[in-house]
Amino acid sequence: MILTDTDLKERKALELVWPNALMLLCMFHVCQSWKNKLNELLGSKGTSQIIHLRKEIKKYIKGIVNQLKAMDSIKGIKECVKKSQEVFQVFIFFIYIYLFKL
């Protein structure tokens, strides 16, 4: 069993040396990677309303990540992801309406 961060090159190298090893990801590094990507995608500028929406989206996604960390079955994870996708689509719809004043 090998525990690594999210470095794909490192994981490939370990896989070459130990092809039958169980490869696990460090949850801290996975969450850090997701947080960094989320910050990159959402940016940091905008009106006070955009900043507020960004904070709400981050809070929502953090809640999803905490739910996923507590899951103990693939079925539960899939259900959580499906529900989250549906809710997130509504978020995006309202942001779109707000931004373009439809």
Note the main attributes of this structure.
2 strands, 102 residues, 2 domains, 6% strand, single chain, 4 helices
Shape annotation: elongated
Tell me the count of domains: 2
Give the termini distance in whole angstroms: 53 Å
What is the succession of H and E elements?
EHEHHH
Radius of gyration: 18 Å
Largest β-sheet summary: 2 strands, parallel
How is this structure best described in words?
There is one protein chain. With 102 residues, the protein is mainly α. It has 2 domains: 1-42, no CATH class; 50-102. The protein is built from 4 helices and 2 strands, in the order βαβααα. It has helices spanning 8-17, 27-42, 48-70, 74-100; strands at 2-4, 23-25. Strands 1-2 form a two-stranded parallel sheet. β1, α1 (8-17) and β2 form a beta-alpha-beta unit. α2 (27-42) runs antiparallel to α3 (48-70) and α3 packs antiparallel against α4. The longest helix is centred in the C-terminal third of the chain and has 27 residues, at 74-100.
